[in-house]
Amino acid sequence: MAEYRYDVDILHLLVSSDHAYFGRAKDGAAVVPTADAESINVVAGKGILGDRFFGKAAHMDAAVTLMAVESLEAIAEELGAQPFDPLLPRRNIILRGAELTPLIGEDFVLETPAGTVSFHGGRHAHPCAWMDRVLAPGAHKAMRGRGGLRCRPLTTGILGRGPAVLVSPLRLDPARAHVASVLRPGRLP
Fold first, then answer.
1. 89: Cβ contacts below 8 Å, ≥ 6 apart
2. Is the alpha carbon torsion for 183, 101, 61, 22 positive or negative?
3. Which residues does 161 contact at the CB level (< 8 Å), separation at least 6?
């Protein structure tokens, strides 16, 4: 089986025990404890220790979200907005240099000096309407197809911020990390 290695940077590792975006956006986000951690403990089949999705049955196949910061940079530029705080979309792992969409349905690995974790790429991390409120008007629509990748952790390990390697079974194009992708076709004709 082919293996392709890509140098990436893990810029942020978000861990939050509670949901911040629920209810009506006009009421504002909930104030919840959120950490931009130096490292995270990922548990196979469960997610990130201490995170709101950890061990939740409905989120087992999508317990960890990855996002390319290039997407946020492109969206801000398209909307004529100031650069966005990369933590506001509330994705767990913010990377630079990673094309993520081709990893839907694939197993891949993130290697960091702190440790290594294998993931299964599940599905797009679709944006919610809150993005228009917390990022900029129009961000919800602009994030479609580039809101990140929801994953299931296959192994237990620690991931740390900083230089990392993404090991993929597919050729990826890091220059396309910001490009919106269409959803993969469904099973229906």
1. 67, 72, 127, 131, 134, 135, 143, 147, 148
2. negative
3. 10, 11, 12, 13, 37, 38, 39, 112
> How big is the CA angle at 9 (ends 5 and 13), to the nearest 5 degrees?
120
Per the CB < 8 A criterion, the answer to whether 175 and 6 are in contact is: no
- Please write the tens of the pLDDT for every residue from 116-142: 999 999 999 888 777 888 888 998 898
Question: How sure is the predictor about 151, in pLDDT bands with cuts at 50, 70 and 90?
Answer: very high
Helix (H) or strand (E) holding 117: strand 115-124
Q: At a CB cut-off of 8 Å and minimum separation 6, what does 20 contact? A: 29, 30, 31, 32, 34, 90
For the chain, the average pLDDT equals 86
Closest CA to 178 of 82, 87, 64, 75: 75
